[in-house]
Structure formats: structure tokens, C-alpha cells
Amino acid sequence: MTNDLASLMRQAQDDDPLVALQATTALRHEIERMEAVQVRRARVAGLPWAQIADAIGVSKQAVHKKYGRR
Hints:
Helices cover 77% and strands 0% of the residues.
């Protein structure tokens, strides 16, 4: 996976804007997936929404709205 992310990072800096946009979109999707996994792990570990929200840098309501119903 690290090689994939590193490859996407290089492609996101490509001179061709379409290549860069596609790579940036793929990176965003992967980061969102990774964040969801970490939020789930934090909840399973018993961490409160407020602490998770603090780590992400959003409000408790925002993190609960995005991840609370999954």
C-alpha cells in the first residue's frame, strides 16, 4: 500500500492536470477510508466522540454525524 500511496503522491504532482486530478481524487478516497478505519478503531477502544473529534480537528457533532451511524 505504501508504494501505491507514494505513486499517487508523485502522480498528483504531474504536469498533466488530468493525471494530477485523478491521483488527487484517489488519494482523497484512500485517506477518507483510512480515517474511517481509525475512527472505528477508536470507538471500539472506548474513546469518546469528543476525543476523536479533537484528534481529527472537527467538532464532536461533525465527527458523530459523519461516522456515528455506520
